[in-house]
Amino acid sequence: MKMRLLFAIPVLFVLLHSCTAEPLQDDTIIEEAQNNAFLEQEVLSIVNDHRVSLGLNKLEFSEIAYKYANKHTDYMIAKGSLSHDNFSARASSINSEVTVKMVAENVAKDYDTAMEAFEGWYQSSSHKKTMEGEFSHTAVSVKKNAQGEFYYTQLFYQE
């Protein structure tokens, strides 16, 4: 009996101390994606609340716009800077999937919260004009680069 108990104690000790509180890489990736999705939803809500306060329509979420916003956010992260590069191609691609009258986009970088991104756009007359424009659909992509900086792309279109 003592022999079994002596053997069980080290095995139990090893099992208990081999567990770690450190998040696994997959857990970190999932947590980051959830945080990005939360920021995306927050930007959309803030922009829609602003539009409603002005008597404008709420923008509907578009999977198509989201696909192209994500691609552009990835592009900006790879490039390491903000840009509207290839905007015409994005607009044409959206139009090839759903007929649109017009397409616009806002981009941002280095804002840690959705409200900061909105306020940055609001302070810029051209970005504010886009947020308040005659659009029906939108999508926001938010991603973090390796240095922990957030990049934002919001695409708008009118059907």
Could you explain how this protein is built, in words?
InterPro entries: CAP_dom (IPR014044), CAP_sf (IPR035940). Keywords: Signal. Residues 1-23 form the signal peptide. Residues 44-156 form the SCP domain. This is CAP domain-containing protein. It is a single chain. This protein has 159 residues and is α+β, with helices and mostly antiparallel strands. The chain has a single domain (44-158), classed as CAP (Pathogenesis-related Protein p14a). The protein has six helices and four strands; from the N terminus they run ααβααβααββ. The chain has helices at 2-18, 25-53, 63-79, 87-97, 114-122, 125-131, and strands at 60-61, 102-109, 137-144, 150-158. The protein has a four-stranded mixed β-sheet, with helices on both faces. A hairpin with a 5-residue loop joins strand 3 and strand 4 (150-158). Helix 2 packs across helix 5 and helix 3 (63-79) runs antiparallel to helix 4. The chain starts with a helix and ends with a strand. 28% of the residues are buried.
